[in-house]
Design goal:
Oligomer: single chain
Structural class: alpha/beta
Number of helices: 17
Strand order of the largest sheet: 4-10-9-8-7-5-6
Shape: globular
Helix content: 40-55%
Largest sheet: 7 strands, mixed
Distance between the termini: 57 Å
Number of strands: 14
Length: 475
């Protein structure tokens, strides 16, 4: 019996236990890499069939087998936080890990750099970069931010930038990136302008107008805007940002350094770095590209610029940011080496990554609309401003009155209803009557089923019918 067959049997057993049929199909892992997955909104029979194009469709149990390590009792609708890894990619990672442990010297001297180069080349193609030298593999988008912001810091220290010059970023920028800006830019003498965005947000024009106001504020009193930090998809609340338009605005305004923090982008939205045109673009591959944690990339439009270094200094210092990033001391590099394996998994779906992005976007939209209809609430953005995540308003009667309430409600849903979903607290505007103050950020990935979202729907309905409010957390 092959390993695939064992996985399928185990997954079938879990499926029987959880009663969660899959709404799509996938081919199993095999030695033939030209098989593809056909996804359909209809449940299919358990036997395989061949369509006229020769595409093989198989039982939904196979996709369950790839993610059989997921807890079968949790409705996991939070792929956006930590991503997910199929068993086939986990096995590839283990092989790399073991090869290093078996003969570390041989692995380091003869295999590590060529393997990292293969991963960089895959990323280059995925994001339409000009040259592989523009691609650095790093462990996290937060590291990418540190590389860029350290470069900006040295521009202040070398008096290329003046004390009081500004950095402009969205108010909804990721918390760790905000702290990095504080550590590198504020401490070097720069001022930070946080662009206040409305929420809910209904159009790109609102974001563009708010960002233009931020740039104008950054230029007041004869200051110059030296850095713009632009999210491609904000984390909480989740909104797809019109990144190309904001980058062009910054170019027109003469901003020195344009950095796109796209932690959630690759795998959930199209990424074309030439079209976007930023100086730096970073994204995690462990969120939506099926890579194990943690691996990310940093794209540098001009990788030869001075004072561009990895924050961890090691033996490759001075050899360019891509080479510096390829060795930052002895550690487990296996997650960085399986990018080609993750892409192989993705390409076995019909239309590859484009097909998966389209599928997840459509399904998260359907589930979001189902939830707001059940609860009588609203979405945080139109669906065309969502990728694979959507913000769903929670009933006002739950009484979500603070960030603490949001965190405690999330824990309550996990502990009592086995639902894993982040909750965002939105501070009401003066004068609002019965505003929605809590939004759930739901994700959709290929392993999710409609039952995951039904469980969330029913959990909230149960809380409402029982008269639950977040005041219980304050008692």
């Amino acid at each position: 019996m092959t390993l695939d067959n064992i996985f399928i049997l185990l997954a079938g057993f879990l499926t029987l236990l959880t009663h969660q049929p899959l709404p799509y199909t996938i081919t199993p892992l095999s030695h033939h890499h030209n098989t593809t997955v056909t996804m359909s909104s209809n449940n299919l029979s358990d036997h395989h069939s061949d369509d006229q194009n020769g595409t093989t469709t198989l039982t939904p149990l196979t996709i369950r087998s790839e993610f059989s390590h997921h807890s079968p009792i949790i409705a996991r609708i939070n792929n956006g936080s930590f991503g997910s890894v199929p068993d086939s990619v986990i096995l590839s990672q283990r092989r790399y890990h073991l090869r290093f442990l078996q003969q570390p010297d041989d692995f380091y001297l003869n295999h590590l750099k060529p393997s990292i180069l293969r991963s960089r080349d895959v990323i280059k193609t995925l994001i339409n970069a000009n040259h592989v030298n523009e691609i650095s593999i790093i462990d996290n988008a937060t590291t990418g931010a540190a590389i860029v912001l350290q470069h900006v810091k040295w521009s202040f220290f070398d008096n290329k930038f003046n004390s009081g010059d500004t950095a402009v970023m969205l108010h909804y920028a990721y918390g760790a990136v905000k702290k990095s800006v504080q550590a590198y830019v504020t401490r070097s003498g720069g001022d930070v302008i946080e662009v206040k965005m409305p929420y809910p947000v209904y159009s790109n024009d609102e974001i563009i107008k708010a960002f233009r106001n931020g740039l104008n504020l950054g230029k007041m009193n004869n200051r110059k805007v030296r850095l713009a930090v632009i999210d491609h998809i904000t984390s909480m609340p989740s909104v797809v940002i019109p990144v190309k338009e904001l980058v062009q605005m910054c170019r027109d305004e003469g901003v020195d350094c344009i950095f796109v923090d796209a932690a959630h982008a690759i795998g959930s939205i199209e990424v074309d770095v030439q079209d976007i045109g930023a100086d730096f673009y970073t994204s995690n591959l462990h969120k939506w590209m099926f890579c194990p944690p943690s691996v990310a990339f940093l794209h540098c439009r001009n990788p030869e610029m001075s004072n561009l270094h990895h924050p961890v200094v090691s033996h490759e210092y001075g050899n360019g940011i891509a080479i510096e990033s390829s060795w930052v001391g002895t550690r487990d590099y296996s997650a960085q080496l399986v990018v080609p394996d993750a892409l192989e998994f993705v390409n076995r779906f019909e239309n590859g990554i484009d097909g998966i992005r389209k599928w997840n976007h459509e399904k998260v939209g359907e589930m979001a609309e189902m939830l707001v209809e059940a609860w009588g609430t609203n979405l945080g953005t139109p669906l065309d401003m969502c990728a694979s995540m959507a913000m769903v308003g929670l009933p006002v009667c739950l009484g979500i009155g603070s960030e603490s309430d949001a965190l405690k409600l999330r824990k309550h849903l996990r502990d009592c209803f086995m639902v894993e979903v982040p909750i965002y607290y939105r501070q009401p505007v003066d004068g609002e009557v019965d505003p929605v103050t809590g939004y759930a950020r739901i994700s959709h990935q290929i392993y999710n089923t409609v039952d995951d979202y039904y469980r969330f729907r029913d959990a909230v309905c149960s809380l409402v019918s029982s008269g639950f409010t977040c005041k219980v957390f304050q008692d």
